[in-house]
Design a protein that fits this description.
This protein has three domains: 223 residues, FAD/NAD(P)-binding domain, CATH 3.50.50; 110 residues, FAD/NAD(P)-binding domain, CATH 3.50.50; 105 residues, Enolase-like, domain 1. The chain is globular, with a radius of gyration of 24 Å. Strands 1, 2, 3, 4, 5, 6 and 17 form a seven-stranded mixed β-sheet that branches. Strands 8-15-9-10-11 form a five-stranded parallel β-sheet. A five-stranded antiparallel β-sheet has the order 18-19-22-21-20, sandwiched between helices. The chain has twelve helices and 22 strands. 30% of the residues lie in helices and 24% in strands. With 479 residues, it is an alpha/beta fold.
Length: 479
Amino acid sequence: MANQFDVVVIGAGPAGYVCAIRAAQLGLKTACIEKWSDDKGKAKLGGTCLNVGCIPSKALLDSSHKYIEAKEDFAKHGIKHSGVDIDVPAMIARKDNIVNQLTTGVTGLFKANGVTLLAGAGKLLAGKQVELTKADGSVEIIEAANVVIATGSRPIDIPPTPLTEGLIVDSTGALEFSEVPKRLGVIGAGVIGLELGSVWGRLGSEVVVLEAQDKFLALADQQIAKESQKIFKKQGLDIRLSARVTGSEVKGQEVEVTYQDANGDEQKLTFDKLIVAVGRRPYTENLLATDSGVNLDERGFIFVDDHCVTDVPGVYAIGDVVRGPMLAHKGSEEGIMVAEIIAGQKAQMNYDLIPSVIYTHPEVAWVGKSEEEVKASGDEYKVGTFPFAASGRALAANETHGMVKVIADKATDRILGVHVVGPSAAELVQQGVIAMEFAASTEDLALTIFSHPTLSEALHEAVLAVDGHAIHIANRKRR
């Protein structure tokens, strides 16, 4: 029958569309349901990541970095110019074109791999049936041997700052500003808040970031976090920790924000725009029938085991809607794992080695354990660091901020964590991921030949520094 499938995936974000493509590649009759549509009623694939998340934000981050580099750094290279202006609508249009190119590409991949796209909202019923509600209100029941839930997440709203069109926005609205706000407030100093604050800060906004926690980047290695905070402060981001927002008031075309500072005193700030970036929550509204058998945990995530199996055999959940970091690459890998399990293959993923990246400039990235985590475990460890200021390639590129940090087990020499703030941090950490996936020791990387001159040499020097053998910096004396 036309409405019977081996696999039905609900959601076409980076977890769902990857799962659907891999399942189809493995010979399974596969359908993918997506309710997001454009103004012409055509399904928009790619989820938050491609449409209003990872991709558009990186487009704006790169555009804004090129602007500030031309404005402030070209002269250091001997490049003279009479002035640089930013055309915000053109920058936004470029971002939109990139998004359209990639989302259209996913549609092409579905066709190439034989995935059936079903436009509408999916709801899991009992017995692995899926109710498809189309845009015109008509309802169809889809029979599935296996169902994969990949409905993603949405920004968290907070009562003190209700969204107000054009003034108080979430991460989606922050990608659509038509001009540079003079005074920009950002609530939340996490990945999204720092990236969006960086974009508009480079273009000329006076940016104040209000963060409720008393630690900056609490999940990151704190030596790297402190170095990052110092760099961002130098760039002009006013990051205020222990700042708990208690209220907001729209006054004409301005927003007055009230917050409690570290001393408990009430403070007020006025902004032209306010971005609320306090995290995301799993998207499960109208997703599960009461008798579907699938359960949520205490935080609203779908409960799954290590292989993403829900409480119903043959029903899986992946990506932002389940436990673990809300990262596109984590969701994509879960999608591949689940597709291969459904096809009868043995598949698993290493949740201990999921890299994290903040795409500011310089980037901040890490994988594995932080020094705080290793210290808390009680295991003996050793650390090596190397500053980009001592890297010939970084100096040549005028990219000398930051450092590479490597943590290793003292007894076995096995690498436990790689942490970087600096140029191409994400790419350097990925080298660490590969090494750690193969259980490499610092000696393994120390004996590896790195091209010269490259930024990667900073990782090489950091692993050498673990045992006091760095060549291009003075080594700390070991006791």
